[in-house]
Amino acid sequence: MTGVQPPTAKQVPHERTHHGDTVVDEFFWLQDKEDPDTVAYLEAENAFTTAATAHLESLRETAFSEIKSRTKETDLSVPTRKGGFWYYTRTEEGKQYGIHCRVPVEVGQAAPPDLGDGGALPGEHVLLDGNALAGDSEFFALGTFDISPDSRLLAYSTDFAGDERFTLRVKDLDTGELLPDTVEGAFYGSAWSADGSTLFYITIDEAWRPNKIWRHAMGTDSSADVVVHEETDERFWVGVDLTRSERFILIDIHSKVTSEVLVIPADAPTSPPQSIAPRRQGVEYSVEHHGHRFLILHNDGAEDFALAYTSADAPGAWTTLIEHEPGTRLLGVDAFSGHLVVSLRRDGLTGIRVVPLQGAASYDIAFPEPIYSAGPEANLEYDTTSFRLHYVSLVTPDSVFDCNLDSGELTLRKQKPVLGEFDPSRYEQHREWALAEDGTRVPISIVARAGTPRDGSAPAVLYGYGSYEASMDPWFSIPRLSLLDRGVVFAVAHIRGGGEMGRRWYDEGKLLAKRNTFTDFVACAEHLVKAGWTSSDKLVARGGSAGGLLMGAVANIAPEAFAGIVAQVPFVDALNTILDPSLPLTVTEWEEWGNPLADPEVYAYMKSYTPYENLSARPYPAILAVTSLNDTRVLYHEPAKWVARLRSLSPDSDVLLKTEMGAGHGGPSGRYDAWREEAFITAWVLDRVGLA
After folding, report:
1. What are the Peptidase S9A N-terminal domain coordinates in residue numbering (predicted)?
2. Catalytic option among 225, 334, 520, 631
């Protein structure tokens, strides 16, 4: 650290009273984004972070150079077939964003075209160049990218602020011209009618909840668009999609624990939507069209989900196809003319099951490593016997395979190139189990340089999330190599609140069981130390968003267990946020965290763990908090208030706040900017563990 003093945030007492409990929030004023004092404080924190990390500039540049030198900058994805074209995205050296392209399918061509050197393919037609669209904007993101069934029109949407409010446009791919059809304020997702005459899209309400599905007739002004469905229950959000068969528009209506699906015939887009099954509290289901039937993946009397079907002509009773099997969580089903492909997880690992429809036995695709992640890639064709899947592990780069559904044979189409002297045999990966304080065994995935000593001398990073049934399955990372090659161990704690071990794993880490998420993570940290992987003075914790709540909670629960904590877009002021239904997404979150407004038990429970509420005057590990001013999911003020209060209570703590002043929840949008952000965090971590 330099001699520069950190900024001091002013304190303006603001009282909050609920259930007879009055709390003074002295940094409430930071919630006003328009207040010049707020912006000045964030900029002062940025300046302090810059000064406090100036000694790491050379290391940051080295880490960035390592990421860049290991990445094939001019590259392309494996083309995916849809109708008469192969679709793919490619990147060019020096350019931040992807270029979306297609080439015609040649007569008799079954396999995707040869990828060559990663540049443009012969006969390429550029559909959308993200670099040209972004121009000089500091931020750029695509929301929807949707080709009409006749391959003639492209609906796409753009965001230049990071607030996830998109402008929707339509491009004629035959002529290259932009059509006059434009919608402001659209959200992710869209769906075409069968003939491309109608486009369905989504808008959000003031709380950033996707609540309306609209129908737009091509060639008309958007002021004439019709609301097809408006969801008035604030717990629910909506989505829209076209089935792979291109027979139906699906409107998905979902809360955290309940769902309903409406359907519209794609060849009759003005028809009123019909419900597959009315919503029932606690029952979730999703729908896939398959010939004369709708496939229903559901949890009605099936904790880990079962697969059923109902008539596509007259949806009614459900007939079971795959029975519920406790401990085998069914995640999704992809329907093709002759096969079903079921994605699942068992014993903390993902799997893929192929179900032939013509008498052959079902089979599970076998994968070679003890820990890995596998799942479906884009599979746009309905009449096909080839299934595209994605495979990755902590030591195997992202790989794309095509599976022959009749034989089960896998053909590797591409493995993400890692340039330089990368050799997976130089690394080892392990699955170990920590023992939580209630006796539950918690899986941990570990990767390290081969031969890493187990005497506690190695530094380590422990990553965690643990919310929304999201699973942190093993993944490969080029930036992570900069840590591994310096002797840092990387581990993932598969804690409760996530979905790694099935639906019960999620249920045991939410609502009034949320503390399990935090104590599981601490148990994983303690296991790494006991097993000799690291020691507490060399262990850095890392998490983002709801995983940032985890970071703030463990900083209060077990500050002595960590040398440092990286909290990215952290949900650290959870109670104040969940108490305010006017804030983005609050009401939809009540089924995840509970409703502290209505229930004093939930209020007291959340208050007992919310990071901001539980800071105290004691030493904390070094903390790096990273946020974005335009984040609509975890608002910037949560980490800003957290850091301000932490500094006021523990002025000797080493805490930094870094705010992206022109980005959203995902941080910087360009790939080079994202690499620099990762290099910044890498250098900070190395400094914390004595390797700077």
Report:
1. 6-415
2. 631
Please name the residue that has the structure tokens 């002297």. Answer: 421
Is 14 in the active site? no
Residue 662 CB partners (closer than 8 Å, separation 6+):
138, 139, 161, 162, 629, 630
Tell me how far CA of residue 633 lies from CA of 207, 410, 546, 661, in angstroms.
10, 39, 10, 15
Q: For the purposes of burial, counting CB atoms within 10 Å of the CB of 149, is it exposed (0-12), middle (13-18) or buried (19 or more)?
A: middle
- Quick one: tokens of 220? 């008309």
Using one digit for the tens of pLDDT, what is the confidence trace for 357-412?
A: 988 899 999 999 999 999 999 999 999 999 999 999 999 999 999 999 999 999 99
H-type helices in 172-213, by residue range? none
Mark whether 545 is an active-site residue: yes
At 101-146, the pLDDT tens digits run: 999 999 988 899 999 889 999 999 999 999 999 999 999 999 999 9
Predicted TM-score (pTM) of this structure: 0.95
Closest CA to 585 of 255, 228, 214: 255
Question: Which of 423, 498, 435 lies closest to 468 in space, CA to CA?
Answer: 498
Which of 657, 462, 662 lies closest to 570 in space, CA to CA? 657
Among this protein's residues, is 390 annotated catalytic? no
Residue in 467, 545, 653, 669 annotated catalytic? 545
* Catalytic annotation, pick one of 216, 229, 254, 665: 665
